[in-house]
Design brief:
Largest sheet: 7 strands, parallel
Shape: globular
Distance between the termini: 33 Å
Strand content: 15-25%
Order of helices and strands: EHEHEHEHEEEHEHEEHEEEHEEHEHH
Helix content: 25-40%
Number of helices: 11
Radius of gyration: 20 Å
Length: 342
């Protein structure tokens, strides 16, 4: 199979390319090598340096391509409203340009890297009153250390539940809005051209080769960087906020399963890519510290942070045959000494 892989020099893209080539696929590697993501590093051997927004270049490159695996994106959490154009220009316009070129070239199968951020907050329930959408956490509650969402009827703390792919999409940042837009553009394209799209909603990806101290770093890498500077990892709130951490090799395996499946059923299908084993952030910090330092649970907070987001991996298991193989307690402990990208 001939696969065009955007973002091929990135953290996830590198793992996807390796897994594809290990099984004998031909990979056409494409990466813009942006300064924010790569800090001036040279493009890896065999990589074509190309901005995804350069639509005129794509049609020629797509000749003979069986499927596109689209990992390229500007990521992170914006610090001001001025960053909105950055996400829209790269993620939304870039995806639209690629889709237009695919339609012109006749390539009709796409695997799209999406994200858990499309959901916003997770799902919650009150033990007395059942399912209960969170209404937000007040500044007064956060300042007082009351971090859990509360039932508006009885005031009790809500219990987190898993989020499946049919959940309402409620982006809470410019980056999240751009990922929702990518999915919508891809779904519209699939209907227009009779194509097939699989969108993979990654949860917290970690593993060897993860970038350190950039907008592309995740919290596990940030904890590692703190330790290597001689600082204690700083954990916000009470450290009990839950996330799902999925190893980068499992993410690559999910991409291969999606590449094999795309176009065989519905025009557009989204899948959570998660371990299925949620974990508290303070526990993550302890595992990554590996006894070298004691993480500090600060009680500090950021008003826009999500309390919990826990995924259901059931659809991916049922329809893609994908089950994560690396448990967080194993992978995060190994990550304590894994090499990072500079």
């Amino acid at each position: 199979m001939r696969v065009l892989l955007t973002g091929s020099a990135g953290f996830v893209g590198t793992a996807v390319a390796r897994h594809l080539e290990d099984r004998g696929d031909e990979v056409l590697r494409i990466d813009a090598m942006s300064e924010a993501a790569h800090r001036g590093a040279p493009a890896p051997d065999g990589t074509r340096r190309l901005d995804v927004r350069d639509a005129a270049s794509w049609v020629r490159l797509l000749e003979g391509v069986d499927v596109v695996c689209h990992q390229a994106a500007v990521v992170g959490v914006e610090t001001s409203a001025a960053d909105l154009a950055l996400y829209a220009g790269n993620n939304d316009l870039g995806t639209a340009a690629l889709l237009g070129a695919m339609a012109e070239s006749g390539c009709s199968r796409l695997v799209l890297a999406s994200s858990m951020v499309v959901y916003g907050e997770g799902h919650y329930r009150c033990e007395r009153h059942g399912p209960c959408p969170p209404t937000g956490r007040s500044a007064e509650d956060l300042a007082a250390g009351r971090f859990d969402h509360q039932c508006p009827r009885c005031g009790s703390d809500l219990v987190v539940e898993t989020v499946d792919e049919d959940a309402r999409l409620l982006p809470r940042s410019g980056y999240a809005a751009s990922k929702v837009a990518q999915e919508h553009y891809a779904a519209a394209w699939a209907r227009l051209v009779g194509g097939g799209v699989v969108a993979l909603r990654y949860h917290n990806v970690y593993g060897p080769g993860m970038p350190r101290d950039t907008p592309y770093s995740g919290v596990a890498a940030m904890f590692r960087s703190s330790i290597e500077r001689g600082d204690r990892p700083q954990v916000f709130e009470d450290g009990l906020q839950q996330r799902d951490f999925v190893h980068v090799d499992d993410v690559a395996r999910a991409n291969l399963a999606a590449i094999d499946a795309v176009g065989s059923s519905a025009p557009f299908t989204a899948f959570n890519v998660a371990s299925g084993h949620p974990i508290g952030i303070a526990e993550v910090a302890v595992m990554v510290s590996a006894g070298r330092v004691v993480p500090e649970v600060t009680g500090e907070y950021r008003a826009g942070d999500i309390r919990h987001i826990v995924a259901s991996p059931e659809r991916a298991r049922r329809e893609l045959g994908f089950v994560a193989s690396v448990l967080p307690e194993v992978g995060l402990s190994a990550f304590a000494t894994a090499p990072l990208r500079g």
